[in-house]
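Attaching the record inline, Q. Sequence:
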Amino acid sequence: MATHYFPTDQVHFTWDTTHEPVITIAEGDTVVIETRDVSDNQISPDSDASVIASLDWSRVYPLAGPIRVEGAAPGDTLAVEIIDLRTRGWGWTAILPGLGLLPEDFPDAHLRIFDISNGEFAFFGDDAAIPLTPFLGTMGVCPADASEQAVMPPGRFGGNLDTRQLVRGTTLYLPVEVDGAMFSCGDAHGCQGDGEVCVTGLEAPMYAVLRFYVERGRSIPAPQYRTAPGPLTPRVDGGSFYGTTGVGPDLFENAQNAVRAMIDHVTGRTSLSREDAYLLCSLCVDLKISEIVDAGQYVVSAVLPEVVLTSA
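Structure, as predicted:
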C-alpha cells in the first residue's frame, strides 16, 4: 500500500471519458490532495461582491483527478475512505444571483470572506460562531459516456453531492461506470447545513487524504456512505435547536417558507442583515422532511443549532 501526492497543477472542469488519468494507484493506496476553492482562485481573501459579476463560469468546479484505481470495473463499487480533511485558513460564502433556494428574495450578489485560520469556527462578527466540519462537496467517478458533462448537478456516479456527512471518518461508496473508476474530487466546504440553501457552503481550499478500495461484484444504484460513530457536529449537540417549518403540498415551496421563517428568526435575534442570515442558513441550518404521509400536506423543518448564536 503506497501513498501518492496528487500534483496541485492538475485539474479538470467537466466529466469526460476522454480525460487521461493523472495518477494510477493500486487498491488500498492513499492519495494526498490539495484542492482549490470552487471558483478556481477567482475569489481571494481580498475580494468583494463585485468579483461575482466577472466570474468565468468555465473555471468553476476545478476537480483534482482523474485518479485511476487499478482493477476497478463497471459493476464494482469504489470505496473512498476519508482519512483526513483540513481547511487552509480562509473561505467564502456568497449569494449568486439567480441561484439558490430563494433567488427572488435575494436578487443581488453578496459575498462574505471568512478567516478560518483558527481551525475551529467561522465567525459572523460577534453574532454567530459556526463550528467547522470540513468535507469535499464533489466526490465522484466518471460517468459512462460522459462528454464535457457539467460537474453540477450530481448523479448516480456521485459528483457534486454536497452531502455534509462526508467528513473525516466517513467512507463513501460509488458505483463504478468506467474501467479504473476515474475518481475526481473538489468543491470543498469548511461547513454547510443540510440543503446548502444559498447554493454555496463555506467554499474553501482543502487538504485531503483519501484511501481507495474496490468492492468487486458489488453493485449499488447510487452513492452510499457510512459515518464514524458519534455525532456529526459534537460542538452543537449539547445545546438546544430552534426549528421553523413550511407546510403544504409542495416540498420545494415548503423548504423555501421554512428558510424564510428562519431568516426572520435570525434577524430578529441578532444584528445580522437578511443577506448574512441567508448565508448562515446555508452554513449551519439543516433542512429535514418532517412529514410526508398526511394526505398530501407535507412538513419541512429548518433546524438551527442555537449554540452558534453567540450574541443571543
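The longest strand covers residues 77-87. Residues 251-269 form the longest helix (19 residues).

More tomorrow.
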